[in-house]
Amino acid sequence: MRTSGGRILLLAAAVGLAACSSRESALVKPVGDGQHPADVVSNRQQQVSLLRRKVVSQLEKKNYRQAIESMNGRNREGLEREYILAVNGLLEAGNNAHSSGDYATAARTFKWALNAYPVEPSLRDRVSHDPKRIRALLEACVSRMMEQGLEEYRRGNLESAITKWKVLLAIRPGHQEAKKALDTATVQLQTLQGMKGR
To answer: I need a labelling partner for 187 at 20 to 30 A (CA). Which of 79, 91, 144, 196 fits?
Structure first.
């Protein structure tokens, strides 16, 4: 009798534990939209994998700005390597444009690189230029663009000078010298056009 009573007691304890266990799992709140934590991790990995394919394709085409915009942030978790490749790619493209005398493209590219510069110290160490160097390159481009506008102005090419200064102001809206030069050239061009119309 003791043996069968012991078995009944063990069986009752097992059923009780099973009931408690199922109640506890019912009380555990799901993560996110009713997903289990492992499912959330798996979904995140899938998202990163899909995004990585898109970003790698953009990097291969040298669409560095689009790659950064696709990652939507400065330190995209799981895509740090690709992010650094994109920022360094922008810097290389800016250097190439600067070397070839395309100062407007170089300035825009350096500005994008500066805006995308990573916050995390471990990532900053992997960027080819520090922010101070990028700012200096950007300023050199802006100065050269101002000079190009002045050269066109002195030659009497008012429309070309105006175009160059408008591009400069799109990159550096607070550039006072370019604003004044643009205003002067615009008034002179309107005056000349008015005289031709008579």
So the answer is: 144
